[in-house]
Amino acid sequence: MKKTGLFITFEGIEGCGKTTQLNLLSGYLKKNGFDVIMTREPGGTKIGEKIRAILLNPDNKRMAMEAELLLYGASRMQHVKELIEPAIKAGKIVLCDRYADYRKGGNDRIEKEKIAFHKRVRKGYLSLAKSDKKRIRIIKADRGIDEIHKEIKDIIIKKLRRLNYDI
Q: Does some domain include residue 166?
C-alpha cells in the first residue's frame, strides 16, 4: 500500500529562521531516503512566482487590499493544484516556507513595518497555535540553529512513525 505524503509548513515572523530550518529538515529527510519537495508562498509554481513578483514589487504599494488578497488566493490555488496536492498523492513530503497561517504575506512592504506590526503578527501566530495544538507546534527560535533543528527533527520523526514510515 502506497503511503500518503505529508505537508509541513514553516511559519513565523521575518528573520526567525524559517528558511534555515526548512533547508536543514529537507537535507535530513533526503539523507534518510524521503522524496522531499521544498516550496514557498506566495510562489512555488511558475505562475505563482509571477504573482509573487507583483506582490513583492514596492512600486505596487498602492495596491488595493482586496486585490492583494485575491492575488494571494490565486497564487495559493495554483500552488495547491499544480504542486502540493500531486506531490502529497505521490507520497512525497512537501516543506513549505509559509502557507495559510501568514494572513497578510511576507513582502518588502511588511518587512519595513515597525516592530509593533511584527509583535501583532507574533501574537496572531501564538493565538493560532493555542487554538489548534494538534496541527501547530511552537518552536522557540531563541536558541542555537542545531538545537532548534534537533527539536524539529524529533517532532517530524514522531509524526512519520505515527504514519507508519520507517525512519
A: no
Which DSSP category does 83 fall into? I
When divided into structural domains, the chain yields a total of 1
Quote the CA–CA distance of 111 and 77 in Å, as a whole number.
25
For the stretch 61-99, pLDDT in tens is 999 989 999 999 999 999 999 999 999 999 999 999 988
- Provide the 3-class DSSP secondary structure of residue 52: helix
What's the whole-model pTM score?
0.82
Q: What is the CATH number of the domain that holds 125?
A: 3.40.50.300
d(CA 124, CA 51): 25
Whole domain around residue 71: which residue ranges? 6-161
1 assigned to some structural domain: no
φ, ψ for residue 40 (rounded to 5)? -150, 160
